Amino acid sequence: MAIGEYKPGLEGVPATQSNISYVDGKAGLLEYRGIRIEDLCEHSNFLETSYLLIFGELPKHQELEKFEHSINHRRRIKYRIRDMLKCFPDDAHPMDVIQACVCALGMFYPLRDLRDIEYIYGATIRLIAKIPTIIAAFHMMRQGNDPVPPRDDLSYAANFLYMLNEIEPDPLAAQIFDVCLTLHAEHTVNASTFCALVTASTLNDPYVVLAAAVGTLGGPLHGGANEKVMLMLEEIGSVKNVKSYLEAKISKKEKVPGFGHRIYKVKDPRATILQKLVDQLFEQSGHDPYYDIALELERQAMDVFAEKGIFANVDFYSGLVYKKLNIPVDLFTPVFAIARVPGWLAHWKEQMADNRLFRPTQVYTGLHDVEYTPISDR
Ligand code: SDX
Questions:
Q1: Which of 178, 261, 268, 347 is catalytic?
Q2: Is residue 261 annotated as a catalytic residue, yes or no?
Q3: Choosing a second label site near 193 at 20 to 30 A (CA), which of 31, 50, 70, 339?
Q4: Whose CA is nearest to atom 55 of ligand 1?
């Protein structure tokens, strides 16, 4: 087998074949199963989009009802998982908590057979249904409160916001949060999805596959960027500080979170949709001065970055929506993880349908035939 050309970070190297989603980085186009993300955000919702991603087509009425009913009635978590949450430090990063709990979840549903349709459906439903409950329960417990039990009568998005502070969100807030989840649900073979594929290819169970993906998503170059963007806006503090802040980042050759993308060489279409959600939310519940800082930062960053094909990505504006929805900054990336579960599951199923163990090769740059030197001679 001839060795292909080494590409750092596998840039431009196809790692799989997939019909789940499509990105045109030059046109700023994103499609889920061929449907434009703009259309899904306008006409669909997160659970219907999750069904589309996982099962390959939009559900009929009864299919969607069964899917939603299964999820709504599987939101509770085992008391042992709740007991586990009590053992974590209050200042543990919630992404670490999710990763640990998703792995633990799998211990209660041991892998029987990856060809068992019921097992796969059960794992799919549980992972979509329970991760929001785990995050919200940890958030309440780290404040010394009892977790808020999920409410089966609330939509997926409304229920998560409700479990965070026991206040039923207003319909616009729930609807906007639902669109945010749809926007983040899938994005071809990004780093965390690639990690899911590799773990899936060893025939591990879906809980371990998702725990691996959660760990990958948390890094600041990937899903962790949305939290970094909010911390950056808070550090800048006012519009008049943007210029000096940006100049300092660039002179230190530091990456500005929320900008740049391996595939998009124009503004991420999701950032544009998120900005519209910010405008809608602020119209109803008041302006946030951090939005002015973000707009000024994007304007000035474009003067420097645009010619290099570096534009705002999905993480640049998402935090402003979450902050207005009273989601704490360190839960921004966990929200990304909640949303990406259907995307990871869709790729897991696709990989299982035609599996081959991922085992790439390398370009060896080391030595050969080196003599062993006893420690006495070193
Ligand atoms: C997500 O892959 C996906 O689809 C991911 C995602 C999804 O939905 O799953 O879209 C979600 O992860 C979005 C990206 C979130 N990350 C960030 O916002 C972190 C900041 N961005 C950068 O770290 C960077 O843009 C990456 C990691 C996102 C992409 O980087 P690449 O493709 O590896 O590009 P690179 O680092 O090689 O940069 C190329 C040039 C370099 O300049 P030179 O050394 O050639 O002079 O562009 C510069 C970089 O320094 N550059 C930046 C920059 N991003 C790239 N310079 C300053 N700030 C930035 N943000």
A1: 261
A2: yes
A3: 70
A4: 260
State the distance from the centre of ligand 1 to the C-alpha of 304, rounded, in angstroms. Answer: 15
Cα torsion through 10, 15, 17, 19, rounded to 10:
-60
CATH classification code of 17-220+328-353: 1.10.580.10
Per-residue pLDDT, 94? 98
352 C-alpha vs ligand 1 centroid, how far in Å? Answer: 30
Q: Among the options 139, 187, 315, 347, which is catalytic?
A: 315
| Paired tokens of 182 | 């749809």
337-371 confidence digits (pLDDT tens) = 999 999 999 999 999 999 999 999 999 999 999 99
* pLDDT score for 112: 78
The vertex-270 CA angle with 269 and 271, nearest 5°, equals 90
Which residues of the chain, if any, have pLDDT below 50?
A: none
**Chosen CATH of 225-324 out of 1.20.120.530, 3.40.50.150, 3.40.50.1980, 1.10.230.10:** 1.10.230.10
208: CA distance to ligand 1 center in Å? Answer: 27
